[in-house]
Write the C-alpha cells for this entry.
Amino acid sequence: MKLETIKLAISNGATLTLYLHDIMELREQARPIILITPGGAYSFCSEREAEPVAISFYNAGYHAAILRYSCLEEARNMQPMAEALESIRILREHAEEWHIAGDKIAVCGFSAGGHLAAATGTMWNEPALMERLNYTGDALKPNAMILGYPVITSGEFAHRGSFYNISGSRVDDEISGFYSIEKRVNSDTPPTFIWHTEDDPAVTVENVLLLISALRKAEVSFECHIFNKGQHGLSMCNQEVNTPNAHCAHWFGLCLEWLDSIGFGLE
C-alpha cells in the first residue's frame, strides 16, 4: 500500500489521505477510487467513518482516499464543497501516476459527510465554485455517489446542527435552503447508492425519501436500501467501529455489487 497525506492548498487545514495499491500488484492496471467524506455534523470529521471505510474499499480492490474537510465556522461559504472538488481535481490530475481510472471516481459520505458527498455531486457546476476553483466543464464532477444515512434537507426533517454549521442559519430559510440537496438534484447528478435505517433518530429517513423523489423526477439512476433497525452512525456496522449490526452490514456488499453494475467493477 502507498499511504500519503496531502494538505490542500485552498484550505487552512483540510487534508487528503490516499490509500493506493502498489504498482506491482496493479500490473499497470488503473483502478477506480473511492473518495470518503466522514460525518460529524460539519463540527468534526468522524474517524469511525474514515479509515475503517477506506480500508474496506481498499481490501475490496479499490483505491481509496479520505478528505478531512473544514468544519464549524471554517465550513461556511461552501468551503468543504470546494475542498471536495479540489480533491477530485488532484485525483484526476495524478490519475496516470497513481494508476487511478480517472473516469471512475466515486464520492462516499456518511451523515453530514453524506451531505458533502451529495453536494459534490450536485454542486460541482455551481457558478461560484467554478469561478473560485477556476475550472469549466465537468472536469471535477464525480462519477458516482455513495451516501450512508445522509443529511439532505434543510426543511422540516433537517438535521439542524449540520445546516447551522454549513450555512450559519438556524432555521429553514434561503441561506440554509441553498444547501438543501433535494432542491439541487438534476439530470447532471451522477448515479447514486443510498442506505439508511428506518428508525434513525438523528437523521430521519425522510431525508432519503426526499432525495429518492428528486432523483426519480430527474431520471437519475439510483439504488436505495432502507434497513428496518439501526442507530445513527453505523459506519461499517462492525465491532471495529463499535456498532455491530449484521443485517445493516450488508450495505457494503450491496454497494460493491452496485458499483459493478454501473461499470466500476474491477477487471
About this structure: The beta strands are 2-7, 15-20, 31-37, 63-68, 100-110, 144-148, 192-197, 222-227. The longest helix spans residues 79-93. The chain has one domain: 2-261. The domain at 2-261 is CATH 3.40.50.1820 (Rossmann fold).
